[in-house]
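User: Can you model how adenosine-5'-triphosphate sits in this protein?
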Amino acid sequence: MTLLSVEGLAVSLGGRAVLQDVSLTVDKGEVVGLIGPNGAGKTTLMRAILGILPHHGRSSLAQLPPRARGRAAAWMPQSREIAWPVSVETLVALGRTPHLSPGQRASAEDRAAVDRALARMGLTAFRQRIVTALSGGEQARVLMARALAQDAPLLMADEPIAGLDPAHQISTMRTFSALAAEGQAVIVSLHDLGLGVRHCTRLIVLDQGRIVADGAPASVLTPTLLRDTFGISAWFEVTPQGPVFQPLEVLE
Ligand SMILES: Nc1ncnc2c1ncn2[C@@H]1O[C@H](COP(=O)(O)OP(=O)(O)OP(=O)(O)O)[C@@H](O)[C@H]1O
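Assistant: Here's the modeled complex, given as structure tokens:
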């Protein structure tokens, strides 16, 4: 079942074409890693897909009215700034907003979704802590939990594992796999190609605003693509412990 369909998406910023002719579909069960060098257009693509950036072309999500969009897709932006000194639980509960009418109180179902999200991000013991008094990585996990509490079929997350310790990076990627196994889908932008190879079912590579590869991780990360798009060489092997990818050198 298709959860997202994008056709001919294009974005210009400051008079410059930042995204050009992007078409893709995402089905339930997929963990799609969006990769590419700095400035390739990953954030721009996700924001255009969500309809929070003016664009040309068609995104099935951007066409929805705001409340329906909030139930169809959850969004964790790259920015980690949290302005209000509220409890972790209060902030995560904001993820339920698209499910509530104005003034409606949270139901048992809403509270269960918040509990599940806190548990998934290892935050149950943090629920009464004040968010602004947490470390950067802890705050990132709270924002991830807020997106998870939204319980939307599609989760879009912009560099959600940046700044997390290795254990939480792996467990967050495993959470994405678990969501996909439950019938949701995830689009996640990443710079860690090793984690992308191990945990994504599919990688989409953006370079200068265009998709240059889209497919199974092992078929996408060829030496030629790594050289031409990322300017690196890498070691890549399928081992009994799963695929292992390690960037080696910057190529001249
Ligand atoms: N408001 C803006 N005006 C002009 N150019 C912009 C604006 N916002 C972003 N850009 C440019 O658009 C391009 C794509 O930016 P984007 O943030 O989508 O890249 P990214 O792939 O997410 O990068 P990173 O990996 O560094 O987060 C960049 O070259 C950036 O400089």
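A couple of observations from the model: The radius of gyration is 18 Å. The mean pLDDT is 94.
User: Helpful, thanks.
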